[in-house]
Each structure stands twice: as C-alpha cells, then as structure tokens.
C-alpha cells in the first residue's frame, strides 16, 4: 500500500522554562499551549494516557519513538476527552492500522484542539527533564521567536500549588452497576477518575456511586457505603484541603477506605504526613514495586509527580490507628502504598500510589481490588 503524502508541514517550536529550545513540526491542533513538561516511558497505551484526567495541565513527552500506529478507538478512552495540554512525539504514524481504529491520533488531537509537536529529539528532551527536573514548557506553531515564547512560558501556571481535581471531576453523581450478584456499595469520589476503575470494581460485584470532588460527608453517608474510594487526579495534593477533611470524617465514621494515586497522597495527608514534588516523577508502565505484605514484586503502571513523605520503616501512631508504608518503588524507594490498622492489627484502610486499574496493563496489581473487597467483607462482619 502506498503511504499517503505527508500533510503540509508547518513548523512548531518547543521552549522549556530554562530556555532550552527544540524545533519540530506542528502535530494535531495548531496554536499555542503551556503546561508542565513530563515524560512517559510507556511503549503502549497512548490513548489511555491522553484521556487520563491526571494529565490535566501537563505536556506529555512520549519516549516511545513511534506513536499512533493503532490509531484511536472508541473502547479504550479513560474519560470523554483528551486531557493533556500538549503532546510531544518523535515520529507519528502516518497510517493507523488496527481493526479497532476509527480515527487517527493527529485527527483526534486536532478535533479536540490539543496542540502537539512532532519531529522532536524526545530522547534529548527526556534526558534534559531527567537531569533538570519537570518544568514548565510552551509549544507554539504561531510563534517563531523562542525568546517571546519563553516570556509567556514564565508567566504560565506552575504545577506546585495547583488545586485541579474539582476542574476535572464529574458535576453530577452517577452509578455504575455491579455485574452479577451485588456484594458491596462503594462511594467513589471522582478527583479525575479513569473509566477502568469503576469497571474493575463492578466486575467484583461492587455497585459504584461516583460522586463529584465537592461531595460532603453527608453525600458519602447518603449512599450507605461499605467502603469509600478516592481516585487518581491532577494537581498538587498539598493544595487540596476539602477532600482531606472529607476523608478524615469518613475515617472517624469507621468507613473502610481505598485510594489510588491522588487518593494515596490525600490518605497520607489525612493521616498527618506531608507530600513533596518528585524531581521528574514516575510515568510509565514497567515500574517495580514491592508489596511488603507478601514480599512480592509487581510490575506496575505509574503516573505521579508528587509523593507521600512517610517513614519507610516502622509504624506511625495516628488518631485513626497505626500507619505503615505497605509498598515501595524499587527504583528509588518512593512510598507507593500506605496501610492503616486498628489496635488489634486488623486492616481498616489502604491506598497505593500506582495503578491497579492500569490499561493497557500491566495487571500484576489487580489483586488490590480483591483486597478492597476482602476489607469491606471483614469490616462488615466485624
Ligand atoms: N495520577 C495521579 O493521581 C497523579 C496524582 C498527582 N497529581 C501527582 O502528579 O502526583
């Protein structure tokens, strides 16, 4: 099959906040965009990455050199739109090829007004971010002067201190029915929830009441939940107070809790720990994490730029019980999970910094949804 002629090439410019400049071609929508430059090392799952609300206000650099081969389908999105504020690839596929593909990546970016750039040396850009840390960036197909774009990058918003989950959350509560026999009811606070999370709960007989990020403790209790869940989400956990207070109220009321990613960071804050910004974060689908409960190492999907500052060894006494770090990233010893136990040593709540709901995978961590079900069963019986 002959390849179609490349679309008319329009130059684009990428300028980091420290002045480093890359030149490439406009990819997706034309125009100008700003955000925090971060890199993802996943070799597959670009559609899930683009539609993950946790990437709100971030410009994602793909380290995979060739992106777009399988096009865009209607089954894999994690939400109803693309959330990244910009997209950087080296070599976009000119022809998508998959039986599920209904659009091309470039068309979807253009239709959803997402500005991207291609033809960039993404390896050099990633090495720069790894050495200097995640930082603000601008991409433009309308500006040709790097100094002028840099001035606008320096005026754009920072990720540290940004409270973003309410901007991406559902406005209205909705219910995802349990598949088969209903075993539990969960109140899931949407801080940027991915579609696969309620799906994986539903498959385990959980009826999921997805609530807006602004939900109150009364809204949670109105559902009579067996468990409370906080999702992943964008922004700085240190800038989020309302949901931390909600979580503390639920813990006082004795509701078992499970949190993922942002939900792990807010759990840490509710228990009295601080959070901090990692130099360049963890974003990819092959990060090794040890589950200290079983001693097993899982290969896991990550997308986080912040982390919980909790002691790796021993337990910490809080008004809610004894807390310990349950999971650790083997690359850099970053806290990847927390667990809370009562005075008898029984698990009452837990959370992980990584993604048991990960699509395209890996699926090593899917057992955590079973752990949540077991926890709700045990607390119901208690
Ligand atoms: N995926 C997430 O929930 C990300 C959490 C938080 N915004 C971070 O970057 O660390």
From TrEMBL:
<feature type="binding site">
    <location>
        <position position="54"/>
    </location>
    <ligand>
        <name>L-glutamine</name>
    </ligand>
</feature>
<comment type="function">
    <text>Small subunit of the glutamine-dependent carbamoyl phosphate synthetase (CPSase). CPSase catalyzes the formation of carbamoyl phosphate from the ammonia moiety of glutamine, carbonate, and phosphate donated by ATP, constituting the first step of 2 biosynthetic pathways, one leading to arginine and/or urea and the other to pyrimidine nucleotides. The small subunit (glutamine amidotransferase) binds and cleaves glutamine to supply the large subunit with the substrate ammonia.</text>
</comment>
<feature type="binding site">
    <location>
        <position position="233"/>
    </location>
    <ligand>
        <name>L-glutamine</name>
    </ligand>
</feature>
<keyword id="KW-0665">Pyrimidine biosynthesis</keyword>
<dbReference type="GO" id="GO:0006207">
    <property type="term" value="P:'de novo' pyrimidine nucleobase biosynthetic process"/>
</dbReference>
<protein>
    <recommendedName>
        <fullName>Carbamoyl phosphate synthase small chain</fullName>
        <ecNumber>6.3.5.5</ecNumber>
    </recommendedName>
</protein>
<comment type="subunit">
    <text>Composed of two chains; the small (or glutamine) chain promotes the hydrolysis of glutamine to ammonia, which is used by the large (or ammonia) chain to synthesize carbamoyl phosphate. Tetramer of heterodimers (alpha,beta)4.</text>
</comment>
<dbReference type="GO" id="GO:0004088">
    <property type="term" value="F:carbamoyl-phosphate synthase (glutamine-hydrolyzing) activity"/>
</dbReference>
<dbReference type="Pfam" id="PF00988">
    <property type="entry name" value="CPSase_sm_chain"/>
</dbReference>
<dbReference type="Pfam" id="PF00117">
    <property type="entry name" value="GATase"/>
</dbReference>
<feature type="binding site">
    <location>
        <position position="303"/>
    </location>
    <ligand>
        <name>L-glutamine</name>
    </ligand>
</feature>
<dbReference type="InterPro" id="IPR050472">
    <property type="entry name" value="Anth_synth/Amidotransfase"/>
</dbReference>
<feature type="active site" description="Nucleophile">
    <location>
        <position position="261"/>
    </location>
</feature>
<dbReference type="InterPro" id="IPR002474">
    <property type="entry name" value="CarbamoylP_synth_ssu_N"/>
</dbReference>
<feature type="active site">
    <location>
        <position position="355"/>
    </location>
</feature>
<feature type="binding site">
    <location>
        <position position="262"/>
    </location>
    <ligand>
        <name>L-glutamine</name>
    </ligand>
</feature>
<keyword id="KW-0055">Arginine biosynthesis</keyword>
<keyword id="KW-0547">Nucleotide-binding</keyword>
<dbReference type="GO" id="GO:0005524">
    <property type="term" value="F:ATP binding"/>
</dbReference>
<comment type="similarity">
    <text>Belongs to the CarA family.</text>
</comment>
<feature type="binding site">
    <location>
        <position position="265"/>
    </location>
    <ligand>
        <name>L-glutamine</name>
    </ligand>
</feature>
<comment type="pathway">
    <text>Amino-acid biosynthesis; L-arginine biosynthesis; carbamoyl phosphate from bicarbonate: step 1/1.</text>
</comment>
<dbReference type="InterPro" id="IPR035686">
    <property type="entry name" value="CPSase_GATase1"/>
</dbReference>
<dbReference type="GO" id="GO:0004359">
    <property type="term" value="F:glutaminase activity"/>
</dbReference>
<dbReference type="InterPro" id="IPR006274">
    <property type="entry name" value="CarbamoylP_synth_ssu"/>
</dbReference>
<comment type="pathway">
    <text>Pyrimidine metabolism; UMP biosynthesis via de novo pathway; (S)-dihydroorotate from bicarbonate: step 1/3.</text>
</comment>
<dbReference type="GO" id="GO:0006526">
    <property type="term" value="P:L-arginine biosynthetic process"/>
</dbReference>
<feature type="region of interest" description="CPSase">
    <location>
        <begin position="1"/>
        <end position="184"/>
    </location>
</feature>
<dbReference type="InterPro" id="IPR029062">
    <property type="entry name" value="Class_I_gatase-like"/>
</dbReference>
<dbReference type="InterPro" id="IPR036480">
    <property type="entry name" value="CarbP_synth_ssu_N_sf"/>
</dbReference>
<dbReference type="InterPro" id="IPR017926">
    <property type="entry name" value="GATASE"/>
</dbReference>
<keyword id="KW-0028">Amino-acid biosynthesis</keyword>
<keyword id="KW-0067">ATP-binding</keyword>
<keyword id="KW-0315">Glutamine amidotransferase</keyword>
<feature type="binding site">
    <location>
        <position position="306"/>
    </location>
    <ligand>
        <name>L-glutamine</name>
    </ligand>
</feature>
<feature type="binding site">
    <location>
        <position position="305"/>
    </location>
    <ligand>
        <name>L-glutamine</name>
    </ligand>
</feature>
<dbReference type="GO" id="GO:0044205">
    <property type="term" value="P:'de novo' UMP biosynthetic process"/>
</dbReference>
<keyword id="KW-0436">Ligase</keyword>
<feature type="active site">
    <location>
        <position position="357"/>
    </location>
</feature>
<feature type="binding site">
    <location>
        <position position="235"/>
    </location>
    <ligand>
        <name>L-glutamine</name>
    </ligand>
</feature>
<feature type="domain" description="Carbamoyl-phosphate synthase small subunit N-terminal">
    <location>
        <begin position="10"/>
        <end position="140"/>
    </location>
</feature>
<dbReference type="GO" id="GO:0006541">
    <property type="term" value="P:glutamine metabolic process"/>
</dbReference>
């Amino acid at each position: 099959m002959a390849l179609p002629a490349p679309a008319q090439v329009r130059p684009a410019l990428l300028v980091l906040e420290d002045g480093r400049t890359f030149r490439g071609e406009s990819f997706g929508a034309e125009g100008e965009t700003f955000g925090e430059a971060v890199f993802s090392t996943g070799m597959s799952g670009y559609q899930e990455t683009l539609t993950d609300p946790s990437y709100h206000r971030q410009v994602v650099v793909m380290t995979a050199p060739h992106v777009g081969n399988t096009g865009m389908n209607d089954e894999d999105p994690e939400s109803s739109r693309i959330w990244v504020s910009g997209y950087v690839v080296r070599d976009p596929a000119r022809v998508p090829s998959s039986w599920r593909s209904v659009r091309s990546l470039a068309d979807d970016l253009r239709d959803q007004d997402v500005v991207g750039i291609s033809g960039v040396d993404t390896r050099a850009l990633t090495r720069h971010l790894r050495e200097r840390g995640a930082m603000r960036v601008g991409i433009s197909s309308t500006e040709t002067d790097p100094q002028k774009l840099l001035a606008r990058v320096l005026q754009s918003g920072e990720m540290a201190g940004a409270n973003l989950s309410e901007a991406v959350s559902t406005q209205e509560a909705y219910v995802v029915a349990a598949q088969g026999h209903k075993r539990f009811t969960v109140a899931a606070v949407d801080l940027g929830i991915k579609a696969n999370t309620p799906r994986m709960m539903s498959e385990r007989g959980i009826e999921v009441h997805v609530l807006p990020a602004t939900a109150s403790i009364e809204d949670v209790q109105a559902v009579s939940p067996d468990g409370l869940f906080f999702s992943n989400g964008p922004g700085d956990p240190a800038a989020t107070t309302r949901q931390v207070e909600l979580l503390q109220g639920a813990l006082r009321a004795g509701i078992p809790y499970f949190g993922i990613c942002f939900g792990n960071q807010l759990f840490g804050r509710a228990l009295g720990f601080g959070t901090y910004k990692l130099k360049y974060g963890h974003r990819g689908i092959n990060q090794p994490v040890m589950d200290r409960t079983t001693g097993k190492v899982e290969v896991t999907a990550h997308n986080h730029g912040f982390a919980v500052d909790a002691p790796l060894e021993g337990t910490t006494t809080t008004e809610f019980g004894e807390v310990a770090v349950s999971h650790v990233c083997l690359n850099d010893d970053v806290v990847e999970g927390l667990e809370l136990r009562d005075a008898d040593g029984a698990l009452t709540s837990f959370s992980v910094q990584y993604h048991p709901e990960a699509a395209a995978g890996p699926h090593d961590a899917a057992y955590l949804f079973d752990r949540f079900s077991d926890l709700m069963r045990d607390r119901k019986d208690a």
